[in-house]
Known about the structure:
Blueprint: H1 4-7, H2 9-12, H3 15-18, H4 26-34, E1 39-43, H5 49-56, E2 60-65, H6 68-75, E3 84-87, E4 98-103, H7 107-110, H8 114-127, E5 128-139, H9 151-154, E6 156-160, E7 164-176, E8 179-187, E9 193-201, H10 205-214, E10 218-224, E11 232-238
Parallel strand pairs: 1-2, 1-4, 2-3, 4-5
Antiparallel strand pairs: 5-11, 6-7, 7-8, 8-9, 10-11
Amino acid sequence: MTADHFQDPRLAALYDPLDPDRGDLGPYLRLAAEFGARQVLDIGCGTGVFALLLAERGIDVVGVDPAGASLDVARAKAGGERVRWIHGDATALPPLRADLATMTANVAQAIADPGEWRATLKGARAALRPGGHLVFETRVPARRAWAEWHREASYSVTDVPGVGAVESWFDLIEVDGPLVTFRGSCVLADGQVLTADSTLRFREREEVEADLVAEGYVVVDVRDAPDRPGREFVFLARRPAT
Ligand SMILES: C[S@@+](CC[C@H](N)C(=O)[O-])C[C@H]1O[C@@H](n2cnc3c(N)ncnc32)[C@H](O)[C@@H]1O
């Protein structure tokens, strides 16, 4: 299930302006360079920020996302024609031999359903060439990121070109074991209110490692995200060479 804010064109258009600091993508770019990746599959590419950074570097990029409104934003960006955008998910991809598959900005948590998650790992593995890598991040449950998902901690006003001042904030709705549901709200300059609810799954490190192994990966490393020390697990897994 994809959260409304990626499906609603009005909210998809605000995704980049409301979160302009993409320092989180630096480590992914460095890994792509380190692996000498020539083809990358970006799963949950959203508005295409990472896919376009890769394409700028001459990499053949396939971006897949179930949210059509986000893909429309991605396609319309400068260089959008250099990326192969696929409306869907990792379970129904054309044949690929990617050197690297990525899920940036906690896409893994947005895939909350266990069956869908395992099917995503399976699809990513099939899209990788033997020896290719899968990299993604997920928030460390013990850090309880959701404790800050309330209006006082998250409220901001952003001046969005062509739109005007946009107020935005998050409200926590429910914590049900590993599932955390929250509401994102935006108020536009004309008083229009946009809201969208999302449910994320917080997985323990051991759980993710077990899922990766069960889907035929070798877990190469579990790192810290340099821009969010102690807050994220960054998984680096490999499809075995044979
Ligand atoms: C927080 S956004 C991250 C977007 C992008 N990766 C980035 O770095 O900006 C999460 C994305 O995951 C996508 N998503 C949700 N369920 C998915 C699934 N089953 N397969 C692939 N992507 C999914 C959403 O549509 C959304 O674009």
